[in-house]
Amino acid sequence: MFGLASSKSDLIVHSADPFNAEPPLDRLRANFITPVADFYIRSHGALPTIDMATHTVTVGGLVDAPLALTLGDIQSRFAPKTVMAVMQCAGNRRADMQKVHPTTGDPWAPGAIGNAEWTGVPLAEVLRAAGARLHPHLHVAFESADVAANEDAPDAPYGVSIPMSKALCEDVLIAWAMNGAPLTREHGAPLRMVVPGFAGVRSPKWLKSVTVQAEPSAAFQQAHDYLLFPPDMRKDTKDEARGVTITSMPLNAAICEPQAGAPVSSGTTIVRGYAIATDRAVTRVDVSPNGGRDWVQATIEHHGAGRWSWTLWHVTLDLPGGEHELAVRAWDAAGQTQPAQASDTWNFKGYLSAAWHRVRVTAA
């Protein structure tokens, strides 16, 4: 049957139902602003069928004036804002952890990430219009129109929350457009959350409700799923009391060209990739031609000073004939860098994989 997997066959598909796919890395690296066609797709269940004209988002909970807003209401009532921001799956680069030991989840390469221009209205403006309590210790919960496919919570709508302190950031949007065009169905039309700097799980698509409440969401994705567990735990021994809720994403970098296993000509080879440090600046990127014994500083490409964007870089290496393990590490404005080995941060869910990215190539 024709479906999203068929129409998106130019992506690397990890799961057809629910649909999860990422772009080839050379295509991902080709543009500072990622085209919609090359943006990764993360689905937790079947894509919902929504009437774009009548779909309503409710705003309730600890508010004085509950709201029910259609897309038209939001666009006419609030001033639009555009924010450039990376969206990144918490499982990005999980495949590197799976080389250490099996994990749950799809084997994402470094392509579960993209940088886009998102247009919408600041969530903070909508909360103020609803007369919301704005105490920083409160939480803002989101529920979506899709039903997440998981055996632990069948038929439960997708739900997450963020702290009020993050919700009041003026760059957190209820968004209706991506790269200047209306959201596509697979990216959350008609309305989705965009929470820059946080894992993509906190930016739910097909937004249905916004609720101000005293506690984090009790939904499966918030309370049980997107938790960082210590390395001694496995799926059948997990203690959720020891899990840490995943919000901000770690400093990370990846080699996009050449790709693993690609033949390269001996001599001069250009290596390209991306780095990301959430809302800190990436101040340096180092690339090694020999697995970390020696390092060459890469050139950071300047595309403006977007707080939430990624950083693109390139470097020229001299590779003699033979096999080489290329590696990359980034440094941020706090002088922090990445762990050397995927085993350093392994966890059974494969979240927050951010060790040096390593690519083996053969020069001939």
Describe the structure.
This protein is mainly beta and 364 residues long. The model has no long low-confidence stretch (mean pLDDT 95). The strands form six sheets. Strands 5-4-13-8-9 form a five-stranded mixed sheet. Strands 6, 7, 10, 11 and 12 form a five-stranded antiparallel sheet that branches. Strands 17-24-23-19-20 form a five-stranded mixed sheet, with no helix packed on it. The protein folds into two domains: 4-245, Oxidoreductase, molybdopterin-binding domain (Sulfite Oxidase, Chain A, domain 2), CATH 3.90.420; 252-363, Immunoglobulin-like (Sandwich). The protein is built from seven helices and 24 strands. The radius of gyration is 21 Å and the shape is globular.
Number of strand elements: 24
Please identify which CATH superfamily of the largest domain we are dealing with: Oxidoreductase, molybdopterin-binding domain
Helix % is 10-25%
Q: What CATH first level of the largest domain would be assigned? A: Alpha Beta
User: How many structural units, i.e. domains?
Assistant: 2
In the CATH hierarchy, the architecture of the largest domain is Alpha-Beta Complex
Strand content: 35-45%
Question: Over the alpha carbons, how many angstroms does the gyration radius reach?
Answer: 21 Å
CATH structural fold name of the largest domain: Sulfite Oxidase, Chain A, domain 2
Q: Unreliable stretches, pLDDT < 50, 5 or more residues? A: none
Strand order of the largest sheet: 5-4-13-8-9
